[in-house]
Design goal:
single chain, alpha+beta, four-stranded mixed beta sheet, 10 strands, 51% helix, globular
Length: 377
């Protein structure tokens, strides 16, 4: 498939660019930071009205079924404006894992609620500071009526504000085994659930969630007992493809802002953009972003096409975008010189968001190792 957007995807990208620039700019991020809020409540409602919550929901469940490439265009634009919303946790993670693992009844009940903006979700996977989806110790013991969950989940995106938790727990095997992992729908207000909001460097928050003997019935099991890892792994591939798209938006915007600064800032009576050393660095930076664009689009297309190479392409994309995001955020700050470190300039916000996005669900080292394992090394 050609690495170009079709007309509908291009229109969606342009629509997202206009909407986010108007309603979710970096100025809005500053406002939310100053009042210690993660989101503006009305923003998610506007996104739902535009159909964004329904993009990955199949048409037979009230969605648009527009695909990963389409959603990726929105996420890339959100990276440009550093927009925080429930799009990632609910419309991407929640919709994907329910569609992949849920029963017919669960899909019919939950997916339309996501598409209509009535349900928000948070996926609880990791239990330490390092991403390791098979290394799950939170246990789900069988009871007469269902299961009892005991353990802790960390770095749960939107875990402090979601109306429904989707929890990966162990019903068999030991930590490190991919078999024996099950997925559960858990009400965050249930007895035994303790949610701690943890602010992060990017002016957002994650949650640390403790489960102290939390009882759920059998209907809370998402999919089949012990067979949750395949759906979880596929969902994490989708998540990382979109994190790569967000990082691409961060890189592109940081580059364009810095390029404009080089054309305006004078030093020793001349424009700093005329310095050959900065020109060489900028040319290298541009070429890395162009390569990243192709990788992100290819990984999203592979997911839409059901390509067997999709997991490998996603890991290549995420690893490369981690590398390019490091380059982009560092170069943006350095080329702005001293003012790049000040709060007065927006450029520092790109580095603050890039670092958590790089680390979420595996950074450069994790995906490099995963790719090597897939390749037989």
């Amino acid at each position: 498939m050609a690495l170009v957007l079709n007309q509908e995807q291009q229109m969606l990208k342009e629509s997202a660019q206009g909407f986010l620039s108007e309603f979710a700019s970096i100025a809005e991020l500053r406002r939310l930071r100053d009042v210690d809020d993660d989101y503006a409540p009305e923003l998610w409602g506007q996104m739902v009205d535009m159909g964004w919550a329904a993009i990955l929901v199949p048409e037979n469940h009230g969605g648009l079924g527009f695909g990963q490439v389409g959603m990726g265009q929105i996420v890339e634009q959100s990276g440009r404006t550093l927009t925080a919303s429930r799009l990632f946790s609910t419309a991407i993670l929640g919709a994907s894992i329910i569609n992949l693992a849920g029963s017919s009844e669960q899909k019919a009940r939950l997916l339309p609620a996501i598409a209509e903006g009535q349900l928000t979700t948070a996926l609880a996977v990791d239990e330490s500071g390092h991403h390791a989806p098979a290394n799950i110790s939170l246990v789900a013991d069988k009871t007469a009526s269902g299961f009892r969950l005991t353990g802790v989940k960390r770095s749960v995106v939107d875990g402090h504000s979601a109306s429904q938790l989707i929890v990966a727990a162990r019903t068999a095997g030991e930590a490190g085994d991919s078999h024996g992992i099950s997925l559960f729908l858990v009400d965050p207000s249930a007895a035994g659930v303790t949610v701690e909001r943890i602010p992060t460097v990017d002016s957002r928050s994650v949650a640390s969630i403790s489960f102290d003997g939390v009882d759920v019935d059998r209907g809370a099991l998402l999919g089949e007992e012990g067979d949750g890892f395949s759906a979880l792994s596929a969902t994490l591939d989708i998540a990382n493809a979109h994190l790569a798209a967000e990082l691409l938006g961060i890189c592109s915007e940081a580059f364009e802002r810095t390029l404009q600064y080089l054309k305006e800032r004078r030093q020793f009576g001349v424009l700093i953009g005329s310095f050959q050393a900065l020109q060489h660095r900028t040319a290298h930076w541009w070429s890395e972003i162009e390569l990243a664009k192709s990788l992100v689009l290819k990984s999203l297309q592979a997911l839409d096409d059901g390509d067997l190479r999709a997991p490998a392409l996603v890991s290549i994309s995420k690893a490369k975008l981690c590398e390019v995001a490091e380059l982009s955020s560092n170069e943006a700050i350095q080329m702005h010189a001293g003012v790049g470190m000040t709060d007065e300039y927006d450029v520092g916000f790109f580095a603050k968001r890039a670092r958590p996005a790089q680390a979420l669900f595996g950074g450069y080292a994790y995906h490099g190792d995963r790719l090597a394992s897939m390749s037989g090394y």
